[in-house]
Amino acid sequence: MNIIIFGPPGAGKGTQAKYLVNKLQNFQVSTGDMLRDEIEKHSEIGKKIIKNMNDGKFVDDTIVNKLLEKIIFDPNKSSKLIFDGYPRTINQAKNLNYLLKKSNQKIDYIFFLNVKKDSIIKRIEKRKILEKRSDDDADTILKRFDTYMKITKPVLDFYSKNENFHEIDGSLKIDEISQKIEEILKV
Ligand code: AMP
Q: Which tens digits make up the pLDDT trace of 26-56?
């Protein structure tokens, strides 16, 4: 089963993705984690993306799409993917459709965790303290939210027409959200 978890920054995508990874024995595909890894490794990609990441801007589609390709074509992970933070642009959504088709896979479920701007700011502030994430200062949070609204909202409109699209109130407690997802997945 391939699942996309979708929503603005701080909506709890990562938390739910990790939960599903455990529950379904699937694999988390977090482009945010993959990009942070590149920065930590001081790789060529890392050097290219550090500024955009710190400014709360999106990383170039070509870089993100390339990182994703390897995972999609990994036979051990086929149809066991939980996408967290990808796709974020129409270009990425189309690329995902293309790669999945090419590897005989599909998207089984799309979950949209919907949260208002105010609660997201509070949540990200908390995560900043717990996880010491450098890109998460208040200013960046707002920029990330605005980038999301501008660029990712069309992706939401693109997916919301699908019958496997489900919107969930992301301001609920973590386990309430997990429960709602489980009810839909019937697991
Ligand atoms: P995240 O951990 O998913 O909140 O991502 C943190 C940051 O990584 C974002 O603010 C972007 O700068 C970058 N990023 C993560 N995923 C993507 C993506 N799919 N496309 C472009 N940039 C991304």
A: 999 999 999 999 999 999 999 999 999 998 8
Q: Which atom of ligand 1 is nearest to the CA of 55?
A: 12
Regarding the beta carbon of 13 and ligand 1, being less than 6 Å apart is answered: no
66-90 pLDDT, tens digit each? 999 999 999 999 999 999 999 999 9
Is the CB of residue 10 below 6 angstroms from any atom belonging to ligand 1?
Answer: no
Burial (CB count <10 Å: 0-12, 13-18, 19+), residue 10: buried
State whether the beta carbon of 152 lies less than 6 angstroms from ligand 1. Answer: no
User: Are 142 and 150 in contact, with CB atoms under 8 Å apart?
Assistant: no
Higher per-residue confidence, 130 vs 67? 67
pTM of the model: 0.91
- CA distance readout (Å), 148 to 117, 155, 186: 11, 10, 30
Q: What range defines the domain where residue 25 resides?
A: 3-185
Q: What is the domain-level CATH number for residue 139?
A: 3.40.50.300
Domain count within the chain: 1
Q: Which two tokens stand for residue 137?
A: 């200062």
